């Protein structure tokens, strides 16, 4: 198999994104660049130089529609596959789209069925108006995510020596709860406030920035076009306040020690 360079990995990710956008447009589904991908679009007009992933967000009703449409054989090109916990072929609570022409290995965790290069597809869910309730929801989500990730962590490995030492001690407790239950807890929590009735929305199940993920629903839904690697994609109209909440002075480059990748190894299947 042929090992891909970081530049090659980005080309594959971009092509997945373009193919998915074409399929979604045909079915009147809109997705938005979010997280680091949106930051890259605004600050670099493409990938963050040291980044090696793509994140997109959909409002919950469109997310569920995409899940159903992915069951059709002609929805995506044959080399692309949409995987999810609901389908039984992913360990994560959200969808991923993978390119099956490639194989992948990632440091620190055992990916299970996620053995190909991917794009994360994240639902944006309704949030209550009460700020205290929002913080409680995100605290619960963080706990459930930690339990989930420990279920397929590699014992003895981690981003720090302390984490590597602690993992063998706490992994057994996480496994008592298990992947299925952790994912169900995350999904139920994310759906606890109906999207269409909410004034505020945010990514809950994978909202790593907690209550800072919160946006006005109408501002999130209104699309604006941004350039990403020479192509045009949608972003939420509130992209400036969203990025400021997540990253602070987002146009300022972070220090070298924070410029980290997912440590992917990707091969093209020959």
TrEMBL record:
Domain LicD/FKTN/FKRP nucleotidyltransferase: 24-248
Domain of life: Bacteria
Gene Ontology BP annotations: glycoprotein metabolic process
Pfam families: LicD
InterPro entries documented for this protein: LicD/FKTN/FKRP_NTP_transf (IPR007074), LPS_cholinephosphotransferase (IPR052942)
Protein name in UniProt: LICD family protein
């Amino acid at each position: 198999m042929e090992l891909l360079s970081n530049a090659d990995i980005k080309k594959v990710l971009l092509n997945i994104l373009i193919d998915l956008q074409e399929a979604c447009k045909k079915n009147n589904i809109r997705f938005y660049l979010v997280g680091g991908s949106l930051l890259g679009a605004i600050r670099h007009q493409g990938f963050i130089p040291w980044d090696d992933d793509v994140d997109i967000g959909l409002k919950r009703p469109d997310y569920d529609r995409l899940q159903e449409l992915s069951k059709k054989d002609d929805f995506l090109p044959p080399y692309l596959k949409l995987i999810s916990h609901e389908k039984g072929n992913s360990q994560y609570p959200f969808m991923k789209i993978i390119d099956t022409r490639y194989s992948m290995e990632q440091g620190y965790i055992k990916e299970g069925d996620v053995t190909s290069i991917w794009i994360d597809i994240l639902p944006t869910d309704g949030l209550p108006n009460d700020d205290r309730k929002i913080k409680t929801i995100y605290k619960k989500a963080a706990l459930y995510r930690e339990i989930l990730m420990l279920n397929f962590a590699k014992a003895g490995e981690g981003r720090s020596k302390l984490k590597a030492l602690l993992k063998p001690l706490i992994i057994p407790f996480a496994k008592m709860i298990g992947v299925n239950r952790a994912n169900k807890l995350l999904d139920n929590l994310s759906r606890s406030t109906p999207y269409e009735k909410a004034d505020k929305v945010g990514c809950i199940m994978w909202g790593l920035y907690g209550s800072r993920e919160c946006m006005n629903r109408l501002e999130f839904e209104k699309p604006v076009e941004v350039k990403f690697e020479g192509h045009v994609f949608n972003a939420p109209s509130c992209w400036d306040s969203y990025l400021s909440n997540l990253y602070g002075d987002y146009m300022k480059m972070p220090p070298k020690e924070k410029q980290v990748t997912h440590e992917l190894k990707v091969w093209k299947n020959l």
